Amino acid sequence: MKRFCLSAASLCAVFLITACSNEQGADESKTIAEINQTNVTEDEFVGELKERFGQQVLNDIVSGIIIDDKAEELNIDSEQIDKEFENFKSEYGVEEDEQLLSMLQMQFQLPVDSIEELKEEVIKPQLVLEQLATAEVEVTEEDKKQHFEDNKEDLVTVNARHILVEDEKTANEVIEKLEDGEDFSKLAEEYSQDPGSADNGGELGEFQRGTMVEEFEKTAFSLEPEKVSDPVESVHGFHIIEVLEKKDSYEELESSIEESLTQEQAKSGEEVMQELREGAKINIKESSYEDWIQ
Q1: Long-range contacts: 264-270, Cβ < 8 Å, 24+?
Q2: Does domain 157-247 have CATH number 2.60.40.3080?
């Protein structure tokens, strides 16, 4: 995933082809390996890489240059990129820059070695595509209010935390401690059996209906903020739920409604990239590569 959704395989091929091509000038037929009585030359190695990955790599390089030119035209600066990077961290639930980098490297095999490379080759192209995808979208106040009226119940969000235990006796024990003034977060860390939230004080973040199991959801959306529920039984065990915040008014939901309607009307990244490529001046100097450009 380098530049415009470049695959990890293609990225590795870019690096290998580039590195080997840079060395070819010094020694075109340098032997790089010997297997039994057979030599493998650098020419053979690079030729194989080009055969397997060349067309995709060339198209990715073309797309990358087009994206860079468009970013300059749109005046996408470091401040915008840094802001989007912070949104990226928030989306993935991480606080440290290096933590995000490590997660992307491990989870998506993203071959970027630094935060600056991530910003330049992932975040910036994303900003370009998003800006162009929504450039012609217009969401009116009437559109937003109508959407709110039509989907009011489904749009409501709550921000909640919980403590999950195995039995009702333990749940009541936790509730007694809460009533005695003990801290919810610390009790979640001590008692909760939910590995996804226990270390974070039981916090689940913001969610809409249709996200959680029915019993949990019914209670969470009926609670007022800062209120703690009685034990709620589900297939997972017994939950003690506290709602931290609830958004159910148009004013509170307006920005998310606008974002949702904008995304519904936006072009896809593929459409945007196709339009950019069609509008670019691509002049293939070597005839053997003419059929490679998509």
Answers
A1: 265/134, 265/137, 265/139, 266/130, 266/133, 266/134, 266/137, 267/132, 267/133, 267/134, 268/133, 269/4, 269/5, 269/129, 269/133
A2: no
Nearest to 131 by CA among 72, 56, 217, 57: 72
Element spanning 233, H or E: strand 232-234
Distances (CA, A) of 70 to 73, 126, 138, 269: 5, 12, 22, 14
Could you tell me the pTM of the whole model?
0.67
Burial class of residue 212 (count of CB atoms within 10 Å of its CB; 0-12, 13-18, 19+): buried
pLDDT tens for 11-31 read: 444 444 445 445 445 445 789
List the chain domain ranges.
Answer: 8-136+268-292, 157-247
Starting from the edge strand earliest in sequence, which strands make up the sheet with 237-247, in order? 203-208, 157-165, 237-247, 232-234
Distance CA 136, CA 133 (A): 8
Query: In percent, how much of the chain has pLDDT > 90?
Result: 67
The span from the CA of 180 to the CA of 189, in Å, is: 17
